[in-house]
From TrEMBL:
Keyword Nucleotide-binding: no
Organism per entry: Pyrus ussuriensis x Pyrus communis
PANTHER family documented for this protein: OXOGLUTARATE/IRON-DEPENDENT DIOXYGENASE (PTHR47991)
Family indicated by similarity: Belongs to the iron/ascorbate-dependent oxidoreductase family.
Keywords: Iron, Metal-binding, Oxidoreductase, Vitamin C
Protein name: Protein SRG1-like
Biological classification of the source: Eukaryota, Viridiplantae, Streptophyta, Embryophyta, Tracheophyta
Length: 382
């Protein structure tokens, strides 16, 4: 077994509990996996994993009447076929509330666009660590952009078994003059931008449909997304094979801070789990489908009628996995005014919040053991 060379680390800078600026050297997971480490380095070990909630496959449960809802984008868009449309809308409303996560079929993204993303992502992660570092810089916004570490807040925090590269794909011009798009492969930016273009249409259509599904005016959510300054961050996640899937996670449990997240995965289906009724449910993800998550910002906009799911990613021993998460947000300056429903007895008590303030708060407190960042925009209970 080889040692990890001196420079195969990411540097993570953070403020510790006392407000001191600290730097942590975080091993690059892909490099650990490449060297065939048979033991999980200590910083990745989670001792509590086996004491966590049970894990279930929906297919193994015969007493579960609900399944993860599956939406046909084609039927949702073809409003004229009214029975199908009404059925999709009903599925959308209940799914977005009870699961917060929806399978998106018939999404209409051309195969060559999806293949283009897969090709550039694989080519990027096929480069050596030094080549990757040279190909793309990093910069700090509220989230970490570039080819850098996931969030690190202390030396004791268990690390995720993941490598990732994140780019701000919209608004256009946001990254002008910054070295934040990978230069290799040369068509990385083009391939991602083609996908972002398709994704935006899907997400805008969903925002309208979600409003209609809740019997609201169809622009109530979409009106927060100015086409010129709403934001799209694209995070490419690479989960290398892991020597001890029983003691490590690919991604720590979290909800997404975004309004909506569109997910694609390739090569393998397993890994993503969503917490439902105190059980981790393996997400049954059909090969050609995309997935959409409600994010915290949409939960706030909808005053809790749509729920952001608590989810995580597990690792596998001999299998590598890629996913692309596309986070769709209003501009940071947008003031979110949660819907008020005078007929509803169920008011979750969300208050107005500025998007940028929420994101700052989310990243300051994350990671948390449970879903709690969102309380930032809730009225204190009396
Ligand atoms: O890899 C996945 O399927 C999920 C990724 C995810 O939850 C995230 O990037 O926020
Ligand atoms: Fe997520």
């Amino acid at each position: 077994m080889e040692e990890l060379s001196e420079n195969c680390f990411h540097e993570a800078t953070y403020l510790d509990q006392e407000g001191q600026l600290r730097t942590s050297r975080v091993p690059v997971v892909q490099e650990l996996a490449r060297r065939g480490f048979k033991h999980l380095p200590e910083r990745f070990i989670r001792v509590h994993l086996e004491h966590d909630y049970d894990v279930v496959d929906l297919s193994l449960l015969n007493n579960v009447s609900e399944v993860l809802p599956s939406i046909s984008m084609a039927k949702l868009r073809a409003r004229s076929e009214s029975t199908d449309w009404t059925r999709e809308l009903a599925e959308l409303a209940s799914g977005a509330n009870t699961w917060g996560m929806l399978i998106i079929k018939d999404h209409g993204v051309p195969g060559h666009v999806l293949d283009g993303v897969k090709d550039v992502v694989k080519e990027f992660f096929g480069l050596s660590f030094e080549e990757k570092k040279a190909s793309v810089g990093s910069y700090v916004s509220v989230d970490n952009m570039g080819y850098v570490r996931n969030f690190v807040k202390s030396e004791d925090q268990p690390l995720d078994w993941i490598d990732r590269v994140t780019v701000k794909a919209a608004p256009v011009g946001a990254t002008q003059g910054l070295h934040v798009w990978p230069q290799r492969p040369a068509d990385f930016r083009h391939a991602i931008e083609q996908y972002v273009h398709e994704a935006r249409t899907i997400l805008n259509d969903l925002l309208e449909a979600l409003a209609e599904a809740l019997s609201l005016e169809k622009h109530v959510f979409l009106q927060n997304f100015d086409p010129k300054d709403s934001e799209i961050n694209v995070r490419v996640n690479y989960y290398p094979p892991c020597p001890r899937p029983d003691h490590a996670l690919g991604l720590t449990p979290h909800s997404d801070a975004s309004a909506l997240t569109l997910l694609m995965q390739f090569d393998t289906a397993g890994g993503l789990q969503v917490l439902k009724d105190k059980k981790w449910v393996n997400v049954p993800w059909p090969p050609e489908a995309l997935l959409v998550n409600m994010g915290d910002l949409l939960e706030i906009m909808s005053n809790g009628k749509l729920k952001s799911p608590w989810h995580r990613v597990v690792t596998q021993m001999d299998v590598e996995r890629f996913s692309v998460a596309l986070f769709y947000n209003p501009s940071p300056r947008t003031l979110i005014d949660p819907i008020r429903d005078s007929n509803s007895l169920k008011d979750e008590g969300y208050e107005k919040v500025v998007v940028g303030d929420y994101l700052q708060h989310f990243y300051r407190v994350s990671p948390t053991a449970e879903k709690q960042a969102i309380n930032f925009s809730k009225r204190p209970k009396t």
